[in-house]
């Protein structure tokens, strides 16, 4: 019966694991998570990374507790006994187990030592007896199998699956000894040799074995093939091979078949695939072992996959598997995420499950309590470690120091630090770093800088956290000399200039001493900063944000780097920062210092400055920049047009805004956004451009701009008079269906439009909606009263006047005017007079509109005396007739056959500077014609044409 001996591949391996009590480790002060390359791993976690769970296994070495491992000749277990593997050896110790024959698959291992090794690797639980558990401690010769240097000859894989060429091993020589008559053991031995050298050759030979019937019941060959496929990450092929292993070769699936796949996933941090293989194991009712759980939990700890870690952990406990590393991984994962309560629950579960902690697990427990500042619990953990026979190492002391630092119990931290010497340990860099962090967190300036300097004098280098802590401490205590020292240390440590500047400005900015930054930098790093664009931008931006404009402008003048694109972006960012802070004058100063190009100005900067000058109401300066843009080669885009239009709107130059919009519309590729559409609607409405409003509305529909509440309200408010009533109703219904809220102005506009269109049913629905939403105001009542008054519906008019009073609103002058006009035009003079009496009793102050209504009604009747009385009253109140008044009077004199007085009114208008409109001329010509003064009427008609009066005129 041949013995299959699998040597661990050589190549760049894991860092040497040394005694933590005597060698420093590279762990930060927070100590969250433990590297397997630095901390001891107990027996039973995993064997060789290439031979996990197989019948023939390589072991990386065994140890107990925290005993330093010494170099020993490599040993193997051949036929259940430990033996040497030769002088040259590989760098890993090797466990060789005899391959069972076809007739006897399993054989009892007589040696207790062999039993322990086998159990530790294949995942079987250790014996419960204390003597057996501490077997390794009693065997001085088996403290650790030594690692030797890799052979200089021999083709092998490293731990990442990469091949290296070796000269003295010839795969062809191996294959030459294999014939179709060779035994399964001989074929497996050749497959092992080939798999060490080349995955491709191993898989080709595996196919040869399949073709020659060597795979029937040969699970070991399938395990090797699965490992080779795993390193190639051909997962589909691996799945097919698992199916073939059961269906064609009648091999039973066990954990070993999946462990090789999971191991590769764990090494390469492929948690998705690792999870898939584990779920497949469970679906096929394959029992996982300690190696399976340990590798998966290590993988999830690396990738931070908490959900899958919790699932695997729960399955482990259900299967009664006791993997100490799984508990450690679970505790560490929770601690990293700040879920310390769950970390403590995992510790309780571990105790209840009877799992014996190893050194790594004790340190993980210690870390959980120290991270929370629970020093009493941490001290109990330390005591338990000592009681269990573990030797406290420097990592344990460092962790406890961190815990005292977090709880600001610095006296105890100092006491632990001083006790290292008596424990036979020397402080390492983590120890000093933890002391610096603890005293820095407590704002103990003298102690922190003392330990910081002791750290350097001991030959260690501060880490980034130490630098950050010290700079913040120095900033708070205003120690510029200390800052020079730390900055120089950061530079010596290789920190980038930009990182140094970032830490410095944050610390001094928080301490309110930003003005000290430039003197500090001038003493050490200033020249280097001037040549670094990133550092300059960080520094200048910080100065501008702290309103230290002089320092910022100085650096911008003295900088030595040349990058026009970066420089423009920096200036733009600074100007925007000043704009957002409301420091418009600072923005102007930065803009004035910026180098400018007359032919290629920066469009973004120019737009920002137009906006800044508009906010400052310096519209002339803003317009100057606009003209410079037009004269340059810049092509204005959507943002530029939006800013320029808004500038003219703020300057109340709506015609110029319309002109800019007309230029924009010529560029067919520009489609306005929501905000520009809103500006367009408001501008056109103020200018009374109904046609443009209609065009803009349909442009909005065509461009499919998403309409929000503001857009719907603006469309209704601005376009109500420009689009058909049915379309307006459709927009309003769509707005309500989408759940948008209307405002009072929108509802009043709808009331006015529906009222003028005679759609009183819709108008009343809108009014009821306004009442329900509490949006009714006095304008709402005035609008609906005016609508009914104009239509001659006096009953509804009076009804809403009463509702207006019931709602607590006094009858407004506008409502009285509507009533006067309605009754007067309807010839109901008694009601007309009654309304006038009500107005006088209510002491309403008549306005121009009131007097014009009276003049119009009396004039239509030809009551010149009443017209004269109204004029007299109008003048007695110091109010001069307006254009509408004159138009009404001219019409009244025409009706009263007083054309000469009508002509005199025209002359009076010229004297007072009131320009006649088309209605004025029309009324005058009608008055002359009515009194048969046709020649005079023709003269005025020709004069009207010569003056070019084409306006629609005022109401008559």
Automatic annotation (TrEMBL):
PPR repeats lie at residues 358-392, 393-427, 428-462, 463-497, 567-601, 637-671, 708-742, 777-811, 812-846, 847-881, 882-916. InterPro entries: PPR_rpt, TPR-like_helical_dom_sf. It comes from the Eukaryota. The keyword Repeat applies. PROSITE patterns: PPR. Pfam families: PPR, PPR_2, PPR_3. The keyword Manganese does not apply. Transmembrane segments: none annotated. This is Pentatricopeptide repeat-containing protein.
């Amino acid at each position: 019966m041949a013995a299959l001996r699998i040597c661990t591949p050589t190549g760049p391996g894991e860092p040497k694991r040394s005694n933590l009590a005597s060698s420093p480790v590279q762990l930060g002060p927070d100590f969250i998570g433990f590297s397997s390359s630095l901390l001891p791993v107990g027996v039973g976690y995993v064997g060789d990374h290439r031979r996990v769970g197989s019948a023939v296994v390589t072991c990386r070495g065994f140890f107990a507790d925290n005993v330093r491992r010494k170099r020993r000749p490599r040993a193997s277990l051949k036929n259940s006994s430990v033996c040497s593997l030769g002088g040259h050896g590989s760098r890993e110790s090797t466990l060789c187990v005899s391959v069972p024959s076809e007739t006897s698959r399993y054989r009892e291992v007589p040696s207790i030592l062999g039993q322990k090794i086998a159990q530790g690797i294949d995942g079987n639980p250790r014996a419960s007896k204390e003597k057996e558990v501490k077997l390794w401690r009693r065997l001085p010769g088996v403290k650790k199998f030594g690692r030797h240097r890799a052979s200089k000859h021999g083709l092998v894989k490293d731990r990442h699956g990469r091949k290296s060429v070796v000269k003295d091993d010839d795969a062809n020589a191996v294959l030459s000894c294999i014939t179709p008559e060779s035994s399964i053991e001989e074929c497996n031995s050749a497959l092992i040799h080939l798999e060490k050298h080349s995955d491709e050759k191993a898989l080709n030979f595996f196919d040869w074995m399949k073709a020659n019937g060597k795979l029937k019941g040969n699970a070991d060959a399938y395990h090797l093939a699965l490992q080779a496929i795993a390193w190639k990450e051909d997962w589909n092929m691996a799945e097919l091979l698992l199916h073939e292993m059961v269906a064609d070769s009648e091999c039973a699936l066990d954990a070993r078949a999946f462990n090789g796949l999971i191991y590769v996933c764990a090494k390469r941090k492929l948690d998705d695939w690792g999870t898939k293989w584990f779920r497949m194991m469970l679906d096929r009712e394959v029992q996982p072992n300690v190696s399976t759980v340990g590798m998966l939990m290590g993988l999830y700890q690396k990738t931070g996959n908490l959900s899958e870690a919790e699932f695997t952990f729960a399955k482990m406990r259900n299967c009664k598997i006791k993997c100490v590393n799984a508990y450690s991984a679970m505790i560490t994962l929770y601690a990293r995420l700040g879920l310390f309560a769950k970390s403590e629950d995992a510790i309780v579960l571990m105790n209840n499950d009877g799992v014996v902690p190893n050194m790594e697990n004790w340190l993980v427990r210690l870390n959980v309590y120290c991270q929370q500042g629970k020093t009493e619990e941490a001290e109990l953990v330390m005591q338990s470690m000592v009681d269990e026979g573990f030797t406290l190492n420097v990592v344990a002391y460092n962790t406890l120091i961190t815990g005292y630092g977090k709880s600001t119990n610095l006296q105890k931290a100092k006491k632990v630090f001083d006790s290292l010497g008596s424990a036979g340990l020397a402080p390492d860099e983590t120890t000093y770093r933890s002391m610096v962090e603890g005293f820095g967190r407590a704002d103990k300036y003298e102690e922190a800088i003392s330990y910081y300097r002791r750290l350097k004098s001991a030959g260690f280098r501060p880490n980034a956290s130490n630098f950050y802590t010290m700079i913040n401490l120095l900033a708070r205590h205003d120690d510029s000399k200390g800052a020079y020292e730390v900055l120089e240390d950061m530079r010596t440590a290789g920190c980038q200039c930009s990182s140094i500047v970032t830490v410095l400005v944050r610390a001094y900015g928080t301490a309110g001493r930003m003005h000290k930054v430039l003197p500090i930098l001038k003493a050490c790093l200033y020249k280097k900063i001037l040549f670094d664009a990133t550092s300059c931008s960080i520094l200048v931006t910080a100065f501008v944000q702290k309103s230290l404009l002089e320092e910022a402008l100085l650096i911008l003048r003295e900088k030595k780097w040349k990058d026009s694109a970066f420089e423009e972006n920096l200036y733009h960012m600074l100007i925007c920062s000043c704009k957002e802070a409301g420091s418009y004058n600072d923005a102007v100063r930065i803009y004035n210092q910026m180098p400018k190009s007359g032919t290629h100005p920066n469009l973004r900067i120019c737009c920002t400055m137009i906006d800044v000058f508009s906010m400052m109401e310096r519209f002339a300066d803003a317009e100057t920049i606009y003209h410079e843009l037009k004269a340059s080669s810049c092509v204005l885009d959507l943002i530029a047009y939006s800013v320029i239009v808004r500038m003219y709107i703020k300057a109340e130059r709506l015609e110029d805004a319309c002109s800019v919009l007309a230029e924009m519309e010529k560029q067919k590729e520009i489609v306005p956004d929501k905000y520009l559409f809103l500006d367009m609607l408001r501008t056109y409405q103020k200018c009374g451009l109904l046609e443009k409003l209609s065009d803009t509305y349909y442009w909005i529909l065509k461009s499919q701009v998403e309409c929000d509440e503001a857009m719907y309200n603006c469309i209704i408010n601005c376009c109500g008079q420009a689009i058909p009533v049915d379309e307006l109703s459709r927009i309003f219904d769509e707005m309500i269906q989408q759940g948008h809220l209307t405002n009072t102005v929108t509802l009043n506009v709808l009331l006015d439009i529906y009222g003028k269109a005679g759609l009183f049913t819709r108008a009343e629905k809108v009014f009821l909606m306004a009442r329900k939403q509490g949006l009714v105001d006095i304008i709402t009542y005035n609008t609906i009263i005016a609508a009914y008054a104009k239509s001659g519906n006096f009953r509804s008019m009076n009804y809403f006047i009463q509702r207006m009073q019931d709602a607590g609103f006094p009858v407004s002058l506008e409502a009285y005017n509507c009533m006067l006009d309605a009754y007067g035009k309807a010839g109901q003079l008694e009601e007309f007079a009654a309304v006038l009496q009500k107005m006088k009793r209510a002491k309403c102050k008549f306005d121009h509109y009131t007097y014009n209504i009276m003049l119009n009604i009396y004039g239509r009747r030809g009551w010149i005396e009443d017209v004269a009385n109204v004029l007299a009253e109008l003048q007695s109140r110091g109010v001069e007739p307006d254009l509408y008044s004159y138009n009404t009077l001219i019409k009244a004199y025409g009706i009263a056959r007083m054309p000469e007085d009508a002509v005199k009114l025209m002359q009076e208008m010229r004297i007072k500077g009131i320009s006649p409109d088309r209605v004025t001329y029309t009324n005058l010509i009608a008055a002359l014609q009515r009194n048969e003064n046709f020649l005079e009427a023709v003269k005025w008609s020709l004069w009207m044409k010569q003056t070019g009066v084409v306006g629609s005129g005022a109401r008559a």
